[in-house]
# Entry
Amino acid sequence: MGQSARGKGRALARLRRLKQWFARYIGKNYGHLAADCAICPTPCCSDAQFVNVHIVRLEAEAMVETLRRSPQHGPDKVRAVQARARAAIARYGLTETGDTFAQTYACPLFEPGVGCLVHWKAKPAACIQHGCYERWEDLPETGTQRAVEQRVAALDEAVYAAPAVWLPIPLWIAKLEEAEGHQSSS
Ligand code: SF4
Ligand code: SF4
# Structure
């Protein structure tokens, strides 16, 4: 394994631990106040008018690796998610330019009856933070999410030696697939 591959492996492990720490923090302090997503009749992840979650490249790598290494998913699921990401880009007209946060899409990582395919190991901080609360004063504070996202960006920048680029999930999944295709054909 080369030095850069080892560096990326370490960064992916740190990213996973950071997300898991944040998920535990939100779960412990706010989980009991939020609605139970497992029995939600209208999951927000599949709401094409609602989801505008952005990630950086390292998070897309973490999502794909999580699926690829998962005993119950594997490479077939990676290909299915990549196909859904390409379909979402075409269907919702997702682009890297302009106000990307104004673009919304149904998330390619969501499966009815299963939920988020990367729930525990590679969920974006915005998704960990999000929940439905009866009272607005029960909503989680946002400072920790911002701090987590700064650390995510710093890990990404250290791996790719360039400023982190935040894009809608389908765009990074598709860009990564394209990059992997170029690598395997060269
Ligand atoms: S966050 Fe709210 S809308 Fe989304 S799945 Fe959970 S309960 Fe449903
Ligand atoms: S990454 Fe997971 S939690 Fe976030 S929008 Fe997609 S399916 Fe939902």
Q: What stands out?
A: The chain is about 55% helix and 5% strand. The chain has one domain: 3-185. The first helix runs from residue 3 to 30.
